[in-house]
# Entry
Amino acid sequence: MADKDKKKRVGPVTFMRQVRAEGNKVTWTTRAETIQATIFVVIMSVLIALFLFLADTAINWVVRLITGL
# Structure
């Protein structure tokens, strides 16, 4: 059973060839797609931060109303 679990070893040259072959298969995003995704992430981060701020403020107001502080 231990023999089946062992993986075949490859040399460093073969490994580098395999890495290069896999790297060539990768589909990279264009500059425009990267900029668009970055803008989307920034906008969503600001919206989530605003939502959390408003929710925290509302909860704080309710707790103060209940406790009378």
User: Anything to note?
Assistant: Residues 4 and 10 are 17 Å apart (CA to CA). The mean pLDDT is 91.
